[in-house]
């Protein structure tokens, strides 16, 4: 009944919108209120996160929780379709969803103020729950979301009160759940009353936006400043010369072919695969690595300085991701500097299972809660399994695990290459499943022998005549023995191999093709030093790496 009287009384006022207009205006004001409240919540949360830690900002914790709950198939899809942009896409998605909810809540609030505002509070609660559920959660991590939720609640309650005024609800009606429940007398104030209230809303809204923008900007600035300080502390580190340098790279590792991957992948171009929405920026001076668990007779805690004081080894190792499709980009070769992991394990009393050790799994934990399990037997079998501190002549980049990560030749990254390492635990495969193993991937995953055509690119149209077909092949810790190429399903031709650096690195290859005009399919397969030739059977990346021959279709004019 109140509704009827409101509409009736609103009609004559100067800005008295007709029935449809008034509803449109209400929706508009509600949407604006919701968006402003949402923006304010995020901005204030950003400021609070600067006091707590950047990783505790609501979008990061909600995004992180979403990543951990994403079904593996979808995650695979995201990585495949958005590549390294998958995180930006996720964050954008969260912001869009948040914006839509803010609009809905705002519109509800113009009619049911308490319900709308309480829904805003509930949103803060989602952030709090996400923050508390992170594997690396610290109690203070819930603060940014909690404060943000309270700010959204208060601001929406306030703005919704302002937004309803043009319709003639008296301020006294604030106590009422239903906006139309209030007296309609104010509407009788006429056009000037409505105009004043609307101005009041605009002033309140503008003030709220300005204050939040200020808070958000300050938060951003403080967070950026912290990151800059951490970057400076990384830049201060000079890695000592390795006691055991890498073998000089033989000449001829890289056939001179345009479009062929360079033998070393620069840090800037090195693929990045991880679940971290904001790259952890660990302080090397306070960093600690704890080594403990089954069969550890002398548990140790090592500092970064402890590692620097040891004999460092330098090795060339090609890293590969299990999510790499046939022909995919998630493989890179770098020169690493680090400490031999097997030495550190032996000093702590660890023995591999073949020597009677009780633990068959080494679980590495990162500062952001990732767990990565490697076979103890493998990391102690004499290969150059490293606690790496340096990559291509500089301290590890933050994105690649600063200050310390693992690198194990021959094992896919998800079972060996833990970045931002902070804990090593000796356990068994029976007792513990690591992060990806819980998500349908295999417990053990040696890298499969693979080859890729880098040039010509798919759908290229090289001129008829001699066309160099070139690419890379890898079978880490086995070594590549042979690479063959064929055209249109014809006979296999042996490619010329680039010189081998070590069996832990990839190998470049080239085959001069006498191209004739028409559409052609080029295929490649590699044979490793155990005599195994890549199977043509195509399987997907799950659960332990893709197989099949890479092929490229070109059309020669
Ligand atoms: N902490 C942490 N370490 C991690 C991951 C991760 O998500 N978190 N991903 C692993 C995977 S799947 C791969 S393939 C390699 C990739 O290392 P890169 O990003 O330096 O190339 O890191 C491994 N180490
Ligand atoms: Mo990976």
From TrEMBL:
Gene3D superfamilies: 2.60.40.650, Oxidoreductase, molybdopterin-binding domain. It comes from the Bacteria. The chain crosses the membrane at residues 24-45, 88-108, 115-131, 143-160. Residues 277-436 form the Oxidoreductase molybdopterin-binding domain. GO terms for molecular function: heme binding; molybdopterin cofactor binding; sulfite oxidase activity. Residues 1-20 are annotated as: Disordered. Pfam families: Oxidored_molyb. Keywords: Membrane, Transmembrane, Transmembrane helix. One of its GO terms (biological process) is sulfur compound metabolic process. This is Molybdopterin-dependent oxidoreductase. It comes from Streptomyces montanisoli.
């Amino acid at each position: 009944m109140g509704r009827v009287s409101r509409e009736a009384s609103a009609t004559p006022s100067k800005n008295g919108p007709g029935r449809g207009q008034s509803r449109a205006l209400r929706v508009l004001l509600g949407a604006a209120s919701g968006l402003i409240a949402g923006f304010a919540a995020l901005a204030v949360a950003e400021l609070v996160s600067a006091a707590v830690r950047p990783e505790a900002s609501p979008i990061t914790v909600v995004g992180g929780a979403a990543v951990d709950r994403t079904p593996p198939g979808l995650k695979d899809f995201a990585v495949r379709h958005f590549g390294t942009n998958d995180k930006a896409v996720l964050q954008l998605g969260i912001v869009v969803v948040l914006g839509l909810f803010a609009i809905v809540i705002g519109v509800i609030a113009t009619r049911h103020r308490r319900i709308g505002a309480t829904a805003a509070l509930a949103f803060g609660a989602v952030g709090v729950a996400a923050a508390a559920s992170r594997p690396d959660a610290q109690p203070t991590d819930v603060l940014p979301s909690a404060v943000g939720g309270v700010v959204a609640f208060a601001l929406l309650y306030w703005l919704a009160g302002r937004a309803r005024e043009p319709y003639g609800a008296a301020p006294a009606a604030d106590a009422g759940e239903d906006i139309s429940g209030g007296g309609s007398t104010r509407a009788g104030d006429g056009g000037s009353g409505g105009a004043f209230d609307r101005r009041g809303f605009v002033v309140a809204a503008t003030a709220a936006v300005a204050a939040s923008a200020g808070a958000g900007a300050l938060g951003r600035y403080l967070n950026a400043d912290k990151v800059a300080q951490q970057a400076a502390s990384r830049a201060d580190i000079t890695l000592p010369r390795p006691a055991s340098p890498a073998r000089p790279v033989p000449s001829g590792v890289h056939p001179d072919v345009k479009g062929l991957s360079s033998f070393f992948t620069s840090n800037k171009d090195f693929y990045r695969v991880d679940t971290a929405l904001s790259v952890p920026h660990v302080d090397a001076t306070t960093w600690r690595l704890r080594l403990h668990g089954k069969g550890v007779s002398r548990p140790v805690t090592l500092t970064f300085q402890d590692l620097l004081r040891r004999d460092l080894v330098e090795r060339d190792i090609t890293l590969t991701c299990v999510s790499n499709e046939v022909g995919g980009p998630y493989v890179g070769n770098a020169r690493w500097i680090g400490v031999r992991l097997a030495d550190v394990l032996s000093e702590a009393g660890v023995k591999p299972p073949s020597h009677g050790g009780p633990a068959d799994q080494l679980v590495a934990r990162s500062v952001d809660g990732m767990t990565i399990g490697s076979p103890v037997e493998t990391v102690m079998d004499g290969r150059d399994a490293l606690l790496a501190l340096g990559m291509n002549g500089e301290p590890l980049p933050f994105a690649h695990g600063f200050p310390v990560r693992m690198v194990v030749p021959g094992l896919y990254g998800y079972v060996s290459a833990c970045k931002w390492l902070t804990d090593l635990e000796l356990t068994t495969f029976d007792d513990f499943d690591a992060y990806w193993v819980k998500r349908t991937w295999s417990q053990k995953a040696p890298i499969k022998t693979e080859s890729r055509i880098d040039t010509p690119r798919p759908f290229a149209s090289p001129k008829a005549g001699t066309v160099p077909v070139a690419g890379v092949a890898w079978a880490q810790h086995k070594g590549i023995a042979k690479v063959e190429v064929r055209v249109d399903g014809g006979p296999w031709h042996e490619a010329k191999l680039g010189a081998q650096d070590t069996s832990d690195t990839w190998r470049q290859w080239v085959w001069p093709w006498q191209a004739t005009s028409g559409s052609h399919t080029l295929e490649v397969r590699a044979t490793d030093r155990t005599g195994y030739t890549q199977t043509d059977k195509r399987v997907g990346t799950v659960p332990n790496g893709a197989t099949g021959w890479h092929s490229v279709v070109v059309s020669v004019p």
